[in-house]
Amino acid sequence: MAIPGAVGASIVDYTTGFPVATTGAAPNDDHEAAAAGTADVVQAANSRSLFVSAVPHDLLEDLIITTAGGYHLLRPVQTDFDSRLVLYVWLDRVLGNLAVARHRMQKLADDLVAT
Amino acid sequence: MTPSTTVAPGRLLAQVAGERQTGALVVGGHPGGAVYVLEGRIIYAESAAAPGVGELLTASGRLAGRTWQHALDQGTATARVGRMLVEHGHLTQGELELCVLGATYDAAYFALAPPDAPVQFHGGVTHWLGPVVHIDPAAVAREVRRRAKMLDDIFPDPRVDTAVVTPIARPPRERITLTAPQWELLVHADGQRTPADLAFLLGKAGFATIQELRRLAAAGLLDLPDVRGKAPEFVRLPRSRGTAVDARRAHPRRDDSPTVPVVSGMRPAAPGPPAPDPPAPAPAPSALTEETSAHGTVYRPPRLARRKPGAKLPKEVAAEPPPPHPGTDEVLLKRIRTALRALR
What is the ipTM of this complex? Predict the structure, then answer.
């Protein structure tokens, strides 16, 4: 299972903004700064936006930020116990395919817990 | 065993890590804690202010109390409780790793954040959970400092972290907004519970709990004690902790049967010390009764479906223990790398 065009990825604790695991490159070569930014975005979406709380149990699934050069995908990792983790993948805009990446990422986030 | 000295716990940790030692760094004071190192890398940490793996898994309903207790009974003496849960199909390897990583960073914050505390190093001691992750101590030390700063950026008053949580009776504004975790904390704050009590009750990380409480305090929604009293005297240690296991001792001693620390039961029974130097801080005698009363109203979220025992057990996990991993959270990394193979 591979994500075409992936430049780097990490698993981030979004309450603290700490990358518990990282691989590949990060924006500005700084995984810790990327994790802190990831946490800010997830917190904002979870706690301050109305989108994720419009309907009961309508939980946050993906956050996708597109830039001219790349895609940044965030997906919470659901565990039965308290963990508050989000999977972050940075994709190259030219090599990456957003739909494929999103699909694979869903499987990856599930497999992290299911295997 | 080094004599107990009052130093910065992080400094002694850096020293034993540099010497690639194996053992337990026991930090006294309140809340105190212990950091377990295996050949210089951190494998686990625990603190009276941070729910451990057992509390996280049972309070959330992920594991039944008796399942956890059984794993403790079977695996404590040989320090393979974690592996046993995976081998018996109660947890996946991924769940175990993520849970241990979270619990370790959480407890490490409480154990290592104090600028000075009585610290002792017990060489040759390991934790009954067994090595699941291997974390670079320097990364943990950095993260502890970052977390301390993060709390002060939210609301620079450490009283919030230990004082009994008392929501104010009347909100200071017409309209207030709460997140789900904040709501949960306020609903369960009964005027008796400390932040650590709430973390254990709800099965949430200790740091995440005080982080939300500092946000609530910053929003003016918590009553803080006027004078900073002798706070440590009033900190209630929520639960008896597991004790360490001597790494060199291969087999359980049959004659002293109650060697198993009860972590998940309704009542902590006999927190027996199997190790010659039990490093876990003993709970204050009064903590037990308060603990019991706190558990009269244990919060149990709806139980989620559990994996069938023995189902989907990969061949590798039944083999002998894997060699220690050289890198930080190596096992976890492998999974992501697999996903990114196209890149290479």
Answer: 0.87
